[in-house]
Amino acid sequence: MDGDSRASNWKHRHLLGLESLSAEDIVAVLDQAAEFKRLAEQGERKLTALAGQTVANLFFEPSTRTRTSFSLAAKRLSADTIEFSASGSSLSKGETYLDTARTIEALGPSMVVVRHSSPGAPHMLSRQLDVGVLNAGDGTHEHPTQALLDLFTIREHRGDLAGKTVALVGDIRHSRVARSNIWGLRKLGARVIVCGPATLVPRNITEMGVEISYSLDRVLGEVDCVNLLRVQFERQRGAFFPSIAEYAHLFGMNGDRQRRMKDDALILAPGPINRGVELTPEVADGSKSVILDQVTNGLVIRMACLYLLDRAAANAEANA
Amino acid sequence: MDGDSRASNWKHRHLLGLESLSAEDIVAVLDQAAEFKRLAEQGERKLTALAGQTVANLFFEPSTRTRTSFSLAAKRLSADTIEFSASGSSLSKGETYLDTARTIEALGPSMVVVRHSSPGAPHMLSRQLDVGVLNAGDGTHEHPTQALLDLFTIREHRGDLAGKTVALVGDIRHSRVARSNIWGLRKLGARVIVCGPATLVPRNITEMGVEISYSLDRVLGEVDCVNLLRVQFERQRGAFFPSIAEYAHLFGMNGDRQRRMKDDALILAPGPINRGVELTPEVADGSKSVILDQVTNGLVIRMACLYLLDRAAANAEANA
Amino acid sequence: MDGDSRASNWKHRHLLGLESLSAEDIVAVLDQAAEFKRLAEQGERKLTALAGQTVANLFFEPSTRTRTSFSLAAKRLSADTIEFSASGSSLSKGETYLDTARTIEALGPSMVVVRHSSPGAPHMLSRQLDVGVLNAGDGTHEHPTQALLDLFTIREHRGDLAGKTVALVGDIRHSRVARSNIWGLRKLGARVIVCGPATLVPRNITEMGVEISYSLDRVLGEVDCVNLLRVQFERQRGAFFPSIAEYAHLFGMNGDRQRRMKDDALILAPGPINRGVELTPEVADGSKSVILDQVTNGLVIRMACLYLLDRAAANAEANA
To answer: Do A135 and A157 share a structural domain?
Structure first.
């Protein structure tokens, strides 16, 4: 499929989560990102697709890498950017979340990238605003561009996702990365095992079509990828495991566990990584790790999302 | 008047306040902004008027919307921007305000946008620096671009300002928005009523050519616009009214009061708004509210100010 | 030497310090900066040398002027920028310095500007990353672009550095500015006197080819330049002098001392300056002061460094 037909098949004006995308939609993003990556490798890093447009970053939760990645993606497409962070902003003056968003919208961006601690916050915005909304993480709910870059990275190294076995390891209960990955992996035909302490793996997660394992060691030999979720101390309300040492002992990836994986298995981690917790330095810097590829791919994934949303808006306008 | 003659009639190298502008000057800004708005609606959002130039934002007080609006206005004219905020800056290392400003000037911007808690700070800079200075709010003194965008918004909806009646409601004493609005509205021939608790309305404000009312209800029926000033908890040194509830009861705009206004009356508020204080949600989201138009218009007003100051500097140089 | 041969003689892919540069290298930077300054004065402020490229600013220590200067230098060369500051970043989530840097590198910048409190941090990055690294200050070790702009400013006002006498005054022990200046000045043939309280002048500094004086008054008459180092309260671990008043009395530059200097002597200070400590207002604003020239020159020096590093990388690739 060439670029034009890819863009014209994509109908969504918002990117809220992978739950609401079809397998075809997901593949369209991955293919578009692959094209941007190919162009960049040929030296065409600066494109003009969004010239004259403005992309707003609305981050109500702190972020370095996702915000920076979206901002750079917008600039690579020649858009101007509006950077809004909650700290030091009008929010401290009592303005509501929606009023802040409407104010930013009134400045004329064509798309708004939003991160918020409340699940569903971007969905609410997509109903209230007239611009495209991209979810950059909403509480424990979804983080679609992270999952898309994970899928892209696996596909790039191992080809088609169908039939692959992927283990998501760690705090499944509070992880928006896990939820978005599950939706995406299942839609593309992968087998998914979620693996973590019983306190951090909700029983009813099986309704999403995944298997549960409480032992990393038991599943290691059969997986094609492990995705080591971040231990998010800041998101846990209670004491879900006895100690960091205990967690690292049972669910941390180390050299010994790495050697028991298939030769061509991949190790992903959304970062920022805690060396010695989710994985040891030997693993982080080892040959199975694709952690830095994920960062690189995140940029082209976000370019692809911005581009496809913009095309969908233009097509909707042309047909109106 | 076409763009060139408009720009050539504007002689000011600084925008310090509306007190020092003539009616003709003010109209020149509004007309230029209208032209930029028309161009944007035709799809010409990115102009090249300031290409190769740098605009510096010097914010010694926190700001989200004004800073973002100026920054985006500069980018829309293809200028580069320097962003300076007091927090985390050299000021914490003991540098004076003027030294900071001179340092920024030495980086070569052609214009400096400044917000400062001291009245007159931008005026002092305009005498000390060789670059154009734009006042983005100086203490309780003036906030010229806010007043210009208010005037623009009223004119856009209701035509010529002459003969219109505008009520400014709330904390008149501490409001730079009120002061700049009074100068601008009076110069363009509007009748101005200032309205608020006696503690927040200085008696001698009548010297600026305005009427005083201590009752919003008494003036509601005769006004074409109300501008609901923000209750600025952070700027009040004493207890000027008994309670927020009392303030909202007497001076807050609500559905009942809104219905007693003329059908085509407008409700403005500089934002960020406190829902339930200066106005109820019913009013904020109602048909008389032009609050979000104000934000949109703020962008083209700031583009117009940057553009006219730049033209004045170029003309001054050409004639030197 | 014309621009092309200058660029082709420069071989360094990193700018880590002046210790590792030859006199020829230093002159190549100064000449390139002079050319950028000449172009700017002719109105060519925006160049396209780095169009399509990205420059990342990684500041693990707070900075206003150096960060802003590098950022603007990158934009003037048409590069996109990634801005990373330690505060509010992933570092607070436990990520290591190197992982942060690798993550930024994975976003695809061609050069990384780094400031860090640890001496040698940029050198370590230059061995670990595949991109060009520019040291924007590493602890008490080096601050090469500050020294280069100091050299540039002296040369601009007084010509060739060879045979000139320069006094560096103040906290020599903790000053990366002093160290980089000593390397640069000595390589270009200047005589260097370091001058300060005995507690702040390490004895073995003479190994760097400098003279020591504990009395500013004794050397005043013979110097062509004094460079008044900042009293860095934040970098001193102990009490190195009795009081600020005592310091200002002995080592502060004031009107009386200024009058005892040669007529054409220059006064430099890296800023942000503490008026009344390192120098009095009379001196800061006096005819010998070139403090604001330093800021202006810092911009073209940083443009020159970015440009030369980029050319070296391109040449290395072409020859590979």
So the answer is: no
How far, in Å, CA of B266 to CA of B154, rounded? 8
| Same domain, yes or no: A78 and A98 | yes
| C317 lies in some domain | no
pLDDT in tens, C78-105: 999 999 887 645 554 667 889 999 999 9
Angle, helices C291-319 vs B97-106, to 10°: value is: 40
Task: Note the pTM of the prediction, 2 decimals.
Answer: 0.94
Q: Is residue B318 part of a domain?
A: no
Statement to judge: residues A152 and A273 lie in one domain: yes
For B97, nearest residue in chain C (alpha carbons): C272
Share of chain C above pLDDT 70, in %: 93
Which phi and psi (to 5°) does residue C97 adopt? -55, -45
In this complex, is the C-beta atom of C204 within 8 Å of any C-beta atom belonging to chain A?
A: no
Do residues A74 and A149 both lie within one domain? Answer: no
Q: Which residues of A touch B40 (CB under 8 A)?
A: 108
Considering the domain architecture, whether residues B306 and B231 belong to the same structural domain is answered as no
Q: Are A300 and A288 part of one and the same domain? A: no
Decide if A68 touches C, using CB distance below 8 A. yes
Q: How far is A68 from chain C (nearest CA, A)?
A: 7
Query: In this structure, which amino acid lies at residue C43?
Result: G
Which tokens in the block code for residue C119?
A: 């001496």
Please name the residue that has the structure tokens 């014309």: C2
Q: What residue of C is the nearest CA neighbor of B50? A: C46
Q: What is the pLDDT of residue C233?
A: 65
Write the CATH number for C224: 3.40.50.1370
SS3 C53: coil
Written as one letter, the residue type at B104 is: I
Nearest to C90 among A46, A65, A85 (CB): A65
Cβ-contact A304, A69 below 8 angstroms: no
Please classify residue B177 by burial: count the beta carbons closer than 10 Å to its beta carbon, then call 0-12 exposed, 13-18 middle and 19+ buried.
buried
Q: What is the pLDDT of residues A30-81, one digit of tens each?
A: 999 999 999 999 999 999 999 999 999 999 988 888 999 999 999 999 999 9
**Interface probe with C: pick from A67, A69, A72, most Cβ of C within 10 Å:** A72
Cβ-nearest to A296 among C52, C94, C106: C106
**Residue B319 maps to a domain:** no
Residues of B in contact with A82 (CB under 8 A): 68, 71-72
C127 to chain B, closest Cα gap in Å: 31
Span B62-86, mean pLDDT?
93
Q: From CA C277, how far away is CA C246, in angstroms rounded?
A: 10
Pairing of strands C165-169, C225-228: parallel
Residues of the domain holding C282: 144-295
Taking only the tens place, the pLDDT of each residue in C120-167 is 999 999 999 999 999 999 999 999 999 999 999 999 999 999 999 999
Residues of B with CB below 8 A from C76's CB? 80
Nearest to B51 among C46, C69, C75 (CB): C46
Same domain, yes or no, for A149 and A280?
Answer: yes
- Position C318 in a domain: no
pLDDT at B233: 65
The complex's ipTM?
Answer: 0.91
Residue C97 touches chain A, beta carbons under 8 Å: no
C265 and C220 in a common domain: yes
Instruction: Express each pLDDT in A272-298 by its tens digit.
Output: 898 999 999 999 999 999 999 999 999
Nearest Cα to Cα of residue A153 among A260, A48, A292, A15: A292
Q: Which residues of B are catalytic?
A: 65-66, 93, 115, 143
CA dist C254 and C252 (Å) reads 6
| Any B CB within 8 A of C248 CB | no
Residues of C noted as catalytic? 65-66, 93, 115, 143
Contact A100 B272 (CB under 8 A): yes
Decide if pLDDT at C245 tops 70.
yes
Q: Looking at the 3D structure of chain A, how many domains does it have?
A: 2
